[in-house]
Amino acid sequence: MPKTAHYRVTALGVFGTAAAPQERWQTGVNCDEDTPASQITRAVAEARAQAIFESFAGTILPLLAAPIALVGVDIRKIGADGKQPKNPDGSYAGAGLYYPASSANRTGTPPYPFQVATVASLRTARSGPEGKGRMFLPPPAAALGSDGLLSAANAEALAAAVASWINAVNGQFIADVSVMSSKGFASKVTGVQVGRVLDTHR
Fold first, then answer.
1. Which 3 state secondary structure label does DSSP give 59?
2. Which superkingdom is the protein from (predicted)?
């Protein structure tokens, strides 16, 4: 079945520092926008990526466990065939990468193994599995309680940060961040929930 054409937005980071990375991580969302990639100049795509980078650095990153760095944001146009369209010169159409000389860093002693993940569930108006998505983020800065769970307040703060970042991504695109199902549905994200149980990166 043909997929829905969209843009993939990926935040790229490392555990440790950009100069001395220990592990790499990435997370991202999809935007239900089908603007022809040929109409998106590299300058526009890179400006989008920069704005999205700055939002992630200001909203989500402060709540994640150190040592951690956000090193870039990558935007890719994905066609209905699941492939990235190319320009006549062979470059990827509609693609933008913001990879600043100075990454956004947080230093400290890691409270969790790097494999631990915070899971943000993306809610939509569509029922069933086609209307549900997830983001796997690095572990939280907050420690677990004596019950082995993230506190409700910390989970809510992370959910609010992810929602704020998604709104910032929405502001850079014509259409909104959506859950893209394998059946061809594109469902706008209307809410974010972060669970109190930590998971592992997938």
1. helix
2. Bacteria
The answer to the question of residue 1 being in a domain is no
* Total residues belonging to the chain: 202
pLDDT tens sequence across 72-88 = 999 999 888 889 988 88
The CA distance from 190 to 48, in Å, is 21
- What's the domain count of the chain? 1
pLDDT band, very low/low/confident/very high, at 182 (cuts 50, 70, 90): confident
My answer on whether omega of the bond before 67 falls inside 30° of 0, hence cis, is: yes
Domain assignment present for residue 81? The answer is yes
- Residue 63: alpha-carbon gap to chain centroid: 15
Residue 36 CB-half CA count within 13 A: 3
Give the domain range for residue 117: 6-200
